[in-house]
Design a protein that fits this description.
Order of helices and strands: HHHHHHHHHHHHHHH
Strand content: under 5%
CATH superfamily: MetI-like
Helix content: over 70%
CATH topology: MetI-like fold
Largest sheet: none
Shape: globular
């Protein structure tokens, strides 16, 4: 399996060298810089004094950086009835459980679709999954709320985790990656007496590690930044997450003095996801390169 993984990484590097031209590097560099502009502006705003924050025309970069926004953020947090550690715990728990559960469910569903395409109903099921990618989550929000409410899971952790646990994108990503694995591996394992369960956990999952690490990253970041789901499925302040906490920092309608604190909170909340992505980005690149390529 190590040889197969090394061979895949070698083909990935050769693919990049073969397809990337100087012009493409220039275009991709430009696009990368454009996508970084909102992050740069957010960091710059977090250090802006109040007079620079409301200048017209607006100023992109800060000229007189200050830490006053972070001091206001601490004062706003101290005024909350619920400790900020509670919001942090809720966000970490929901994001971690959702990311882990998404990988397990998506992998279990993708394995038979990728390696047993002649299974009865496989094409119909996969077509339904692809069709589900066309709908925004807000389209199904009312049915999801009715189901969660009927199960008496409103204002619970399960009520916020279950609606986003099984995603179409995760199943599609895992299936596309698993299709690159040679069928001979499974056949050889069966000859040696391995069960389907053992083949899945000891052969398939280690080989598709870049795919499920990518899915963990996307699922964790998406849940960490999710504002709408906790807003719909929570009622008490003790069950709210960090995005909902940030909505309280502004101080309510008509209050502008805490926008600097909101910018500081946004920067602090974004840092963990940026660090995770930077440390694991090579898995994401490998997954994106191989999800649409036949071996």
């Amino acid at each position: 399996m190590a040889t197969i993984a090394s061979r895949r990484r070698g083909r990935y590097i050769q693919l990049i060298k073969r397809t990337a031209s100087p012009g493409q590097y220039v275009i991709m560099t430009f696009l990368a810089l454009v996508t970084m502009l909102p992050i740069v502006y957010m960091v710059s705003t977090a250090f802006k004094p109040l007079e620079e924050m409301f200048l017209y025309p607006p100023r992109f970069l800060v000229r007189h950086p200050t830490l006053r926004n972070f001091a206001e953020l601490l004062m706003a947090i101290d005024s909350f009835t619920v400790p900020v550690a509670r919001y942090l715990f809720n966000s970490l728990l929901i994001a971690s459980v959702t990311a882990t559960g998404s990988v397990i469910l998506s992998s279990l569903a993708a394995y038979p679709l990728a390696k047993y395409p002649r299974m009865p109903g496989a094409k119909l099921y996969f077509t339904m999954i692809i069709s589900a990618l066309m709908f925004a989550p807000e389209v199904t929000q009312i049915p999801r709320y009715l189901i969660v409410d009927r199960l008496n899971l409103i204002d619970t952790y399960f009520g916020m985790i279950l609606p986003v646990l099984a995603g179409s994108y995760g199943l599609f990503l895992m299936k596309q990656f698993m299709e690159q694995l040679p069928v001979e591996l499974i056949e050889a394992a069966k000859v040696d007496g391995a069960s389907e369960w053992r083949i899945f956990w000891q052969i398939i999952m280690p080989l598709v590690r870049p795919a499920w690490i990518t899915l963990i990253i996307f699922s964790f970041i998406g849940t960490w930044n999710d504002f709408f789901t906790p807003l719909i499925f929570t009622r008490s302040e003790q069950m709210k997450t960090l995005p909902l906490m940030m909505s309280n920092i502004g101080g309510g309608p008509g209050v502008v003095a805490r926008w600097g604190a909101v910018a500081a909170a946004s920067m602090m909340m974004t840092l963990p996801t940026l660090i995770i992505f930077v440390l694991l980005q090579h898995y994401v690149m490998e997954t994106m390169a191989y999800s649409g390529i036949k071996s």
